[in-house]
Amino acid sequence: MFGILKHPSAWVPLVLTAAMFVVLYLSLTGVIPPDATGDEGAAAHLFQIWFVLEVLLISFFAFKWLRRSKDALLILVLQLCGVFAMCFPVWYLHL
After folding, report:
1. Which pLDDT belongs to residue 52?
2. pLDDT at 1
3. Which residues of 41-75 are buried (b: 16+ CB within 10 A; e: fewer)?
4. What is the 3-state secondary structure (H, E, C) of 37-72?
5. Which of the residues 4, 18, 26, 84 has an alpha carbon 20 to 30 A from that of 32?
6. Is the pLDDT of residue 69 over 80?
7. Which residue pairs from 47-56 have beta carbons closer than 8 angstroms and sit at least 24 positions apart in sequence?
8. pLDDT band at 19 (very low <50, low <70, confident <90, very high)
9. What is the three-class DSSP state of 9?
10. What is the mean pLDDT of residues 64-85?
11. Distance CA 60, CA 50 (A)
12. How many whole angstroms separate alpha carbon 33 and alpha carbon 56?
């Protein structure tokens, strides 16, 4: 499993998810203030960009590595769990 983690397509989606958790934390604590003009704000726009990038990166990983390695399935599950874990607070807190 650790051999496949050397490739960026395996670890970049996990790092992006961790970065989005930091953005979520900063926006919930008030470090990133909501936009006064009624727009969603910077955190919402970053989440939308992250979600598109995450779908593309995970799809690329799945197409490239699932046929080559059985360990890729575990990494794919970790990536998908990260996406669901990031989307849950947004859904639950109606952000």
Report:
1. 95
2. 61
3. bebbebbeebeeebeebbeebbeebeeeeeebeeb
4. CCCCCHHHHHHHHHHHHHHHHHHHHHHHHCCCCCHH
5. 84
6. yes
7. 47/20, 47/23, 47/90, 47/95, 50/16, 50/17, 50/19, 50/20, 50/86, 51/83, 51/87, 53/16, 54/13, 54/16, 54/17, 54/79, 54/83
8. very high
9. helix
10. 91
11. 15
12. 29
Q: Which amino acid is at 31?
A: V
Domain count, the chain: 1
Average pLDDT, the chain: 88
Separation CA 74–CA 27 (nearest Å): 31
- Chain centre distance of CA 71: 20
Reported pTM: 0.85
Shortest CA distance to 62 belongs to which of 53, 73, 71? 73
What lies within 8 Å, CB to CB, of 44 at 6+ separation is 95
SS3 state at 31 = coil
